[in-house]
Amino acid sequence: MKGAVGHPLQDLGWTDFFAQAAAPFMAAFSPEAGTELEVGRIVGAQRAAYQVWTAQGPEEALLAGTLRQHAAEPLSQPVIGDWLVVQRLPAGQPLRIVHVLPRRTTFARAVNGGLTEQIIAANVDLVFIVTTPDEDFDLLRLGRYVAAVRQSGVRPVVLLNKTDLVRDTAPFVEQIRALASGLPVHEIAAAEERGLGALRAYFQPGVTAALIGSSGVGKSTLTNRLLGREAALTGSVRQSDQQGRHTTTARTLYALPEGGLLIDNPGLRDIAVWDMAGQPAGFEMIEEVAADCRYRKCTHTTEPGCAVKRAVQQGKITAETLTAYQQSRGLPLRRPKKR
Ligand SMILES: Nc1nc2c(ncn2[C@@H]2O[C@H](COP(=O)(O)OP(=O)(O)OP(=O)(O)O)[C@@H](O)[C@H]2O)c(=O)[nH]1
Ligand SMILES: [Zn+2]
């Protein structure tokens, strides 16, 4: 098994981490069987059918029986972004997924009232949270997204899109920056291709980024502008895909011309649906605890009998989160949460 340097899948994010994890698995097979084994990355998924990118390009793949038996356990299911060991079968047959390699990062949402987590993407390095300076702007919700992304061990970057809609973006940017220390915020206008240069800097070869945000904030527009017109039209992952073959799976992982990968996946897209379902964290935690404050309109600053201040002292809520929460209150732009 070769290392990552010079590997044909290096641009797709293959690193020594995965090479080292794959080596013992491959070595356990007889030389004959071993020659049928290859590695690949999931770039599209639709139920049990996967689209896997191997050194030969995009191919269909199905779960091997042993993996399918564990389908009831959501954690063992391959997800978009996963690196796999696949077995090449006689011509015409889909690849067999025989092993899911360990994940560097997992991007999960809480299900069953926070009791279990469902992994929706793996090996994601950074997440672009897209919002706009209009009725979509909701600082409380943004704060939850930032917290959720960080909890996944992934780096959040906020994009304020459609900056052409307002004369002054500074108040929006200031409020977002206050959500977390060191949180990068970029002002863009995807439709006018403004501010995209700064984003391209994130897409180093092998880096995997995902886009999230409510419907209509401009995720598709941004994806198309970053990929360039042709790539977006064909949904092509790399120039080497010239077979024009028919595929049944939705391809949702794209390679940018300058290197780097972008996941634009329906399951990730509608973050409003998974929005920390049932998991009190960050701002939600504050709102829950505030029910025990002595005063109903407690600002959690100097009031006696403040349950939130107490929770901060006990280390249940960080002072940073409380400050961000307080700054977000009394916002002229705060609207009821969209359902
Ligand atoms: N004014 C303005 N409009 C934009 C900008 N970027 C995108 N739009 C428009 O916003 C609308 C929604 O854009 P989409 O890219 O479809 O948004 P989306 O986030 O992909 O939406 P879903 O597919 O529903 O998740 C379209 O009419 C775009 O033309 C921008 O920078 N400025
Ligand atoms: Zn209080």
From TrEMBL:
GO cellular component terms, A-Z: cytoplasm
Catalytic EC class: hydrolase
Cofactor(s) the protein needs: Zn(2+)
The keyword Nucleotide-binding appears for this protein: yes
Binding site for GTP: N161, K162, T163, D164, G213, S214, S215, G216, V217, G218, K219, S220, T221
Subunit description: Monomer. Associates with 30S ribosomal subunit, binds 16S rRNA.
Function: One of several proteins that assist in the late maturation steps of the functional core of the 30S ribosomal subunit. Helps release RbfA from mature subunits. May play a role in the assembly of ribosomal proteins into the subunit. Circularly permuted GTPase that catalyzes slow GTP hydrolysis, GTPase activity is stimulated by the 30S ribosomal subunit.
Name the record gives this protein: Small ribosomal subunit biogenesis GTPase RsgA
Lineage of producing organism: Bacteria, Thermotogati, Deinococcota, Deinococci, Deinococcales
